[in-house]
Every structure is written in C-alpha cells, then in structure tokens.
C-alpha cells in the first residue's frame, strides 16, 4: 500500500529496513559492555553487535573482529578517507569508528544492530540517516565509576585519568534535552539489565510474531498493557514518556524508507 503510493509519487526506489538500531553510550566504565554481554547471551539471534574499529591496543581476552577491529592509525585513516565510515572519533588518545560494513554485517543477519559508541559518536550518528534509539548508561556517581574502572584493571593511571575527565564531560553533555531517549543508571546490575531488556523487548508480542525471541525466552504471561508498563518504567528510570508509549511495537514495525 505504502510502496504503491510511493511508486505513484515517482520515488526511484524504496528499501525495506528492519527494526531501528540501538545505540548504547555513556562514560567508559559505566557498564555498557557488561550489559551488552548479558543481552547478547540471552538474545543471541535477536541483537547483533556493530564491531567498531579502534587504534587502541587489545586487552587480554579481547578478540580481533569480535570485540573490535584492531587497526593502526594509518589503516583506519585510509578507510575513513575512502568514505567507509559512518562516524569516527578520537577518545582518550585513540581513534574509534563505526564502519558502514559493521552495521551492514549485522543487518544482513536480520538482527537488531547495537552500537557501543561515545558521546561524539552519538552526535555524529544524529547527522546520519541511521535513526537509532539512543540509550545512555551512567554510573551512580563519578566515585563509583572510578572504583569500577580501577577494579577492572585495564587502565594505566594515565588512561584512567583521561577516562575520568572524559566521563565528566560525557555526563554534562548527556544532559542536553532530547539527546537520549533513555538514561539507565547502572547501580544494581540486574536492575539496570531489567530496565534495558524491558525497553528493548517492550512490544514482545510483536517480537514473537516476528520470531525474534530466542527459544528459551519466557512466554508472555498476559496481554501487554502498554500504559501500565510505561507507568512502571517511568518510576524506575529517566525516560521520556512518548518513547515508552511508542516502545518496540512501533519500532519493530518494518520501516519503509525512501531513497532518492
Ligand atoms: N565514536 C565511537 N566511539 C566508540 C566506538 N567504539 C567504541 N567507542 C567508545 O570508545 C570509548 C572507549 O572504549 P574502550 O576503549 O573499549 O573502553 P571501555 O569503554 O572503557 O571498555 C567508549 O566510550 C566506547 O563507547 C565507535 O565506533 N565510535
Ligand atoms: N552494576 C554494577 N555494579 C558493580 N560493578 C559493575 C556494574 N556494572 C559493571 N560493573 C563492572 O564495572 C566495570 C566496567 O564495566 P564495563 O562493562 O567494562 O563498562 P564500559 O563497557 O561502559 O566501559 C567492569 O569491571 C564491570 O564488571
């Protein structure tokens, strides 16, 4: 119906796209990777990770091509110059960026693409047509953030201080109205994960229809009452009501995008 109308309007071509991607941002050490690991474990066929490029050194246990594409500055700059990146930024003395290929690889699997990017990336993605849901994961306090980063034992004193400075800037900038659709305060991990899951899977009777739920997912116990669920969520997280009201019901409806 919509396609017919668009053809009539002389649109050159239209592409069907899947559900909107999801951007997770927030200070280094806020808990993004921890939350995403849980999400990918529980819903491995539903969500797919956009593997970024970075010039930083791999940490013990990190796998090239899975956690990041670890590259030299020269290699990355060459690909940026060739127009292969959606966005890129300098963070704490290293380059990070999302290639077009990283997002396409996830979409080719019919998975919901999840990006873990810093606040500069958020601002740059806003200038593109990717149109994701923006979620900020934040620590309960800067002191707790520092303790978590120290306990993680991945940073030198110098890189830790750079991350704390960047975190203060991030927390200030993220107050900009409308920048994020949802802010999750990661105090208790299970509670933060529930909030993330609830928002991402809000329209789960729709996800069931689309067979997006993994086989071991809990079956819906009652008909979803969006208003009631929204009210619950508003009480537990900083979240604009209109986003909650739309939830994934709308977001999981395939979108028709016009391409000139
Ligand atoms: N703009 C942008 N930021 C990224 C990208 N990939 C990762 N980041 C961000 O870079 C920052 C540092 O990431 P990383 O070195 O893995 O440290 P960690 O977040 O403390 O584990 C984090 O804020 C990430 O969200 C990317 O492709 N683009
Ligand atoms: N709610 C939480 N309570 C205590 N420690 C946490 C919590 N969430 C994450 N952590 C720990 O904090 C550290 C930073 O989390 P991580 O997921 O690496 O952050 P990010 O990916 O945002 O840099 C990790 O060592 C992780 O195990």
State Rg. Answer: 19 Å
- Our estimate of the beta-strand percent is 15-25%
SSE sequence, one letter per element: HEEHEEEHEEHEHEHHEHHHHE
Average pLDDT, rounded to a whole number, is 78
Strand order of the largest sheet: 3-8-2-9-10
Distance between the termini: 19 Å
Unreliably modeled segments: 1-16, 204-260
- What sort of overall outline do the alpha carbons produce when their principal axes are compared? globular
Helix/strand/pairing class, anyone?
alpha/beta
What's the total number of strands?
11
Main sheet makeup: 5 strands, parallel
Helix content class: 40-55%
List ligands, each type once. Answer: guanosine-5'-diphosphate, adenosine-5'-diphosphate
Instruction: Count helical runs.
Output: 11
Catalytic activity: GMP + ATP = GDP + ADP
Protein name: Guanylate kinase
Domain Guanylate kinase-like: 19-201
GO molecular function: ATP binding; GMP kinase activity
Distinctive features:
4-stranded mixed sheet, 5-stranded parallel sheet, 260 residues, 11 strands, binds adenosine-5'-diphosphate, disordered C terminus, alpha/beta, disordered N terminus, binds guanosine-5'-diphosphate, 11 helices
Write the layout of secondary structure elements.
Layout: H1 2-8, E1 13-17, E2 22-25, H2 32-42, E3 47-49, E4 53-54, E5 69-70, H3 73-81, E6 85-91, E7 94-99, H4 100-108, E8 112-116, H5 119-125, E9 133-138, H6 142-152, H7 157-173, E10 182-185, H8 189-200, H9 204-209, H10 226-236, H11 241-251, E11 255-259
Helix pairs in contact: 6-7, 10-11
Residues 28-29, 33, 52, 56, 87, 89, 91, 96-98, 116-118, 120-121 line the site of guanosine-5'-diphosphate.
């Amino acid at each position: 119906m919509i396609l017919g109308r668009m053809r009539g309007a002389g649109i050159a071509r239209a592409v069907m796209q899947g559900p909107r991607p999801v951007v997770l941002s927030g200070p280094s050490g806020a808990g993004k990777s921890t939350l995403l690991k849980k999400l990918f474990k529980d819903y491995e066929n539903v969500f797919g990770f956009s593997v970024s490029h970075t010039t930083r050194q791999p940490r013990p246990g990190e796998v090239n091509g899975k956690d990041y594409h670890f590259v030299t500055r020269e290699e990355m700059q060459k690909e940026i110059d060739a127009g292969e990146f959606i966005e890129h930024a300098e963070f704490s003395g290293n380059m990070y960026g999302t290639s077009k290929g990283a997002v396409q690889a996830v979409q080719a699997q019919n998975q919901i693409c999840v990006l873990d990017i810093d606040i500069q990336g958020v601002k740059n993605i806003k200038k593109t047509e990717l149109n994701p849901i923006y979620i900020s994961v934040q620590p309960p306090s800067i002191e707790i953030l520092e303790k978590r980063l120290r306990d993680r034992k991945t940073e030198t004193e110098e890189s830790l201080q750079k991350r704390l400075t960047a975190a203060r800037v991030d927390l200030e900038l993220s107050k900009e109205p409308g920048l994020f659709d949802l802010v999750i305060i990661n105090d208790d991990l299970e509670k933060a994960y529930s909030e993330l899951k609830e928002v991402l899977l809000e329209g789960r009777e729709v996800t069931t229809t689309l067979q997006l739920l993994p086989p071991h997912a809990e079956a819906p116990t009652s008909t979803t009452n969006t208003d009631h669920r929204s009210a619950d969520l508003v009480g537990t997280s900083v979240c604009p009501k209109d986003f909650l009201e739309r939830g994934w019901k709308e977001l999981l409806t395939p979108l028709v995008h016009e391409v000139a």
